[in-house]
Amino acid sequence: MKPASPRVVLITGASSGIGKACAEYLQGLGYRVYGTSRRAAALPPEPGPGLRLIAMDVTSEESVRRAVELVLAREGRIDVVVNNAGWGIAGSVEDTSIAEAQEQLDANFFGVLRVCQAVLPTLRRQGSGCIVNISSMGGLVSIPFQGLYSASKFAVEGMTESLRMELRPLGIRVAMIEPGDFRTGFTAERRMAAAAAQGPYHKALCTAVEVMEKDEQGGATPEAIAWRLEKIIEARDPKLRHLVGPLAQRFAVGVLRKLLPQRWFERMIAGYYGIA
Ligand SMILES: NC(=O)c1ccc[n+]([C@@H]2O[C@H](COP(=O)([O-])OP(=O)(O)OC[C@H]3O[C@@H](n4cnc5c(N)ncnc54)[C@H](OP(=O)(O)O)[C@@H]3O)[C@@H](O)[C@H]2O)c1
């Protein structure tokens, strides 16, 4: 459904993958979309019909503030915020340094927090708005050698549950999309914990990451997420969690996780990633 007057959407991490697909899809439906990238130089001088890509590094409060101010100066409002920017680290819990873990959480969790804090005064003043956080199936279920990535997404899940209750009385809707594996730049951008190359888990890590990469690169392109995002934005009262991805993954995370005893579920997951 096309909005009556174009709504203003801010999507972090819109230079690639899920963010890009969502930005282009909503732009095509008539929303006024501002996407962000660390590499975007600046906003074009005059608003054009194309996607507006503006600079934002979600690990910098100053950069987030500047980007939000830029959208507000141009549009005077923000109706939808999609916290999508992120990346993943692979490595055993033992081999991942504290600095690496902090970097992961700084982007995937504190990035979401920074953007929420920057836009909320505006959304509260408006008495309306919608925040959609892109979590992951890895935010509900952890898999071997993704412990710190999952920690960042579990943190997003926890914060989003609170945020939703805090904002409901103010007329602001909050939801999450939990994607399974999709073919995006995520695989190429994956970082390995530095110590993992020499570590005791090296062989098992390589086996597990090979499965992850195969599933990601063999996955669908992320249009299904863009489609779901639009349904969430348009819903008066969207549900909190939206699993999107291959049927087998939705079944494992949405159904088996709740039905099977934890030990069986763990064995199934570990076996799938070749470390049982
Ligand atoms: N692909 C999957 O299978 C999958 C599954 C579950 C969840 N997810 C989640 O989906 C989100 C998008 O990932 P994707 O798969 O679309 O990966 P992608 O193709 O690599 O895109 C990641 C986007 O995030 C941006 N980004 C990364 N670090 C940033 C930072 N510090 N500040 C600002 N922007 C940053 C990148 O922009 P620049 O590099 O241009 O700044 C890029 O636009 C992530 O949160 C990821 O965890 C992905």
Automatic annotation (TrEMBL):
InterPro entries: KR_dom, NAD(P)-bd_dom_sf, Sc_DH/Rdtase_CS, SDR_fam, SDR_oxidoreductase. Gene3D superfamilies: NAD(P)-binding Rossmann-like Domain. Pfam families: adh_short. Residues 7-180 form the Ketoreductase domain. Keywords: Oxidoreductase. GO terms for molecular function: oxidoreductase activity. Belongs to the short-chain dehydrogenases/reductases (SDR) family. This is Short-chain dehydrogenase/reductase. It comes from Solimonas fluminis.
